[in-house]
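In the design runs reported in the main text, the only information available to the sequence generator was the tokenized backbone. The following block is the verbatim input for one such run; it is reproduced so that readers can re-run the procedure and compare outputs position by position.
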């Protein structure tokens, strides 16, 4: 019952955050003309969603004591949710740089997207501590600040990030005929496998890895949303 209480509180917070960000994206689509400004605003909002959800999941994973199977289930479901709601946003530097390397977007555009991602991540650092004051979960009252779930230095974590990005890229590259409606599930399954591998190899100390909130191929949110 205690685990269920913790889980419901975190799910409620994540649901409210996703709904709010989805509303903001809809308003942006309606009020801002298509183009660079609209793309950057959606990138900010989507990165905010990603980082806020990841902060909550890191808190749940490090302090909640949930079972590994439940953590992996949440990994899968939340990744599918992000894939369905991000509306083309990349939400991490590795994914954006990949677009540039593949000549899918010009350099100046990618630089602006990177800036938008950092803005969204920084907004999550300001927003989440205030949301936790609502005490939707007992974890929010217990929290005295959480640390990185990585058992390695940041530069090593960056290498792991690139390896994860490459793994997903290869998985998607060899599945070109996957129908669009199934693609979020393929991405989520790949991410879940990466999370499981990271847990089993002791790369992370949390049942929920930093990859949890990723849109298919990143744990950028880990590096930007580590609790102070």
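Verbatim output:
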């Amino acid at each position: 019952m205690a685990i269920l209480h913790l889980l419901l509180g975190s799910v409620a917070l994540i649901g409210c955050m996703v709904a709010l960000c989805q509303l903001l994206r809809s308003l942006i689509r309606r009020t801002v003309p298509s183009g660079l400004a609209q793309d950057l605003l959606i990138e900010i909002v989507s990165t905010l969603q990603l980082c806020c959800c990841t902060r909550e999941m890191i808190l749940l994973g490090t302090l909640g004591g949930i079972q590994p199977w439940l953590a992996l289930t949440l990994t899968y479901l939340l990744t599918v949710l992000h894939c369905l709601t991000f509306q083309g946003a990349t939400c991490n530097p590795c994914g954006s740089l990949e677009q540039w390397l593949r000549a899918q977007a010009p350099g100046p555009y990618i630089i602006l997207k990177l800036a938008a991602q950092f803005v969204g991540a920084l907004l999550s650092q300001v927003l989440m501590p205030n949301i936790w004051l609502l005490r939707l979960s007992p974890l929010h009252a217990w929290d005295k600040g959480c640390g990185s779930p990585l058992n390695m230095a940041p530069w090593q974590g960056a290498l792991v990030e690139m390896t994860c990005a490459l793994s997903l890229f290869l998985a998607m590259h060899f599945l070109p005929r996957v129908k669009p409606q199934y693609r979020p599930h393929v991405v989520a399954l790949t991410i879940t496998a990466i999370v499981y591998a990271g847990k089993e190899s002791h790369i992370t100390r949390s049942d929920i890895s930093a990859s949890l909130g990723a849109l298919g191929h990143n744990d950028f949110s880990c590096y930007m949303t580590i609790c102070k």
